Amino acid sequence: MSHTEVWIALVGMAVVTVITRALFLMAGEHITVPDRIQRALRYAPAAALAAIILPDLMTWQGHFTVAFSNYKLMAGVAATVFYLLTRKMVGMIAVGMAVYTALRLLGG
Fold it and tell me: What domain of life is recorded for the organism (predicted)?
């Protein structure tokens, strides 16, 4: 794959991402979802996110581990606790990254 093709792919992916996010945000409250669907989807994003993220958090250096030496898992736990206490998504990301970075720098 040439450099030009790589750049075309990157720009194309960026455009698609921006358009899909912009359309979702621009629609805002103009589109209403029926209550039945809202109730069904209330916990689906959390379950899907857990299914995607947990396997990554549970592995450290290529091995499945649930220990204090697993920095990703410890950062995930700290971020989850922060979110449950505050319900602030951006803060959760910041706490998770701060804990992960601190553990990596201090733990060697």
Answer: Bacteria
